[in-house]
Amino acid sequence: MALKRILSGMRPTGKLHLGNLHGALQNWVDLQNDGAYECFYFVADWHALTSDYAETGEIADNIIDMVIDWLSAGLDPARSTLFIQSNIKEHAELFLLLTMITPLPWLERNPTYKEMKAELTSKDLSNLGFLGYPVLQAADIIMYKAYGVPVGVDQLPHIELTREIARRFNFLYQEIFPAPEPLMTKIPKLLGIDGRKMSKSYENSIYMSDTGDVLKEKVGAMYTDPQRQRRKDPGRPELCNVFTFHELYTPLEKTSEIAEQCRSAGIGCTDCKKILGAGIQSGMSLIHERQAYYRNHLQEVRDIIADGDTRAAAVARKTMDEVRTAMKISYGL
Ligand code: TRP
Ligand code: SF4
Predict the structure, then answer these.
(1) Is residue 254 domain-shared with residue 182, that is, in the same domain?
(2) 19 lies in which domain range?
(3) CATH code: domain of residue 246
(4) Do 101 and 9 share a structural domain?
């Protein structure tokens, strides 16, 4: 049976945190391991430029740090194609061609665009690249004729737009592109140590590479149920971010016991967090081993990317031949 092709991308934010791991990366690994899919995962470095065009000096290191975390989490280059967007110049060409057939209002009404522009007031985002972001994303996706795109809810408008652009291409020129399906999975709602969304820019993240004292300190600083001020106050585990992490890192039986003891004030938050810290440390130990390995074998990481680039380029070149032919811009001149 033919494998269905999956494609997803991540902007190169550097080392990943547990929110990235449980919100996206673990899902990528699971899809790879499922066996029913041919997976393409890429570093969306041009996407990073749409908002961070002024500070580009760290992108190279960020790419390596992120790919090391991908490999450490279990992405296997023998089964998944891992590549860097900007190494496949066809993405830029397809983006250019798609901009010709994308009506501006489709971009201007995009809710993710409107929200980000309103939120990121520290940056001037009134540039063409930022408005055109979803067109670049559409190019990334349809280049590989992906059947499915694993993404978070925030990306749904972009996938819907991709479907519309693909349909418009097919209508104007030739049926080349399947409309991709968004693949959503239930993800645990993990917050940062200060109770806000876990985010690198909030400096509230627990990183996949945090171990030992750093890890203990961060877990110790985590916000808990705000109603549990004193040791004798009963707590509400269902409202506690520490507990959400227990559900991922502590054995089920122990987790139920903690819930019960929290409600009866039988356990204090300090002890509860000690158990969690130890749980994360042991749950992440294989990942930590792999991180250490790849940090000492950077050439291997570069070779893995080069190999993925080669595989991705072969698909992209073929698609672009079809696109140019369909658009009658393969002049033979
Ligand atoms: N926009 C995505 C994000 O911010 C990253 C991305 C770029 C992507 N191109 C993609 C995701 C193609 C899926 C498919 O998370
Ligand atoms: Fe949260 Fe644990 Fe404290 Fe309960 S005991 S409030 S689950 S940290």
Answers:
(1) no
(2) 4-190+298-327
(3) 1.10.240.10
(4) yes
Cα–Cα nearest to 243, from 190, 187, 283 = 190
Same-domain pairing of 129 and 254: no
Residue 269 Cβ < 6 Å to ligand 2: yes
Question: From its phi and psi, is residue 74 left (phi > 0), alpha (psi between -120 and 50) or beta?
Answer: left
- Are residues 279 and 303 located together in one domain of the fold? no
- For the domain that residue 118 is a member of, what is the CATH number? 3.40.50.620
CB of 235 sitting under 6 A from ligand 2: yes
Residue 199 lies in a domain: no
- Whether residue 110 sits in one domain with residue 179: yes
How many angstroms separate the CA atoms of 151 and 198, rounded? 17
User: What is the pTM for the complete model shown?
Assistant: 0.95
* Residues 119-164: tens digit of each pLDDT: 878 888 889 999 999 999 999 999 999 999 999 888 999 999 999 9
Strands (E), 79-221: 80-84, 148-150, 181-183
Number of domains in the chain: 2
**In 3D, which of 111, 149, 110, 116 has the Cα closest to residue 50?**
116
Which residue lies with its CA nearest to atom 5 of ligand 2?
269
Residue ranges of E strands in 153-237: 181-183
Hey, what's the torsion of the CAs at 93, 96, 102, 108, to 10 degrees? 120
Ligand 2 contacts CB of residue 237 (under 6 A): yes
For 72-81, 97-106, 110-119, 199-208, which range has the lowest pLDDT when averaged over its residues?
Answer: 110-119
Strand duo 181-183 + 80-84: pairing:
unpaired
| Residue 233 alpha carbon to ligand 1 centre in Å | 44
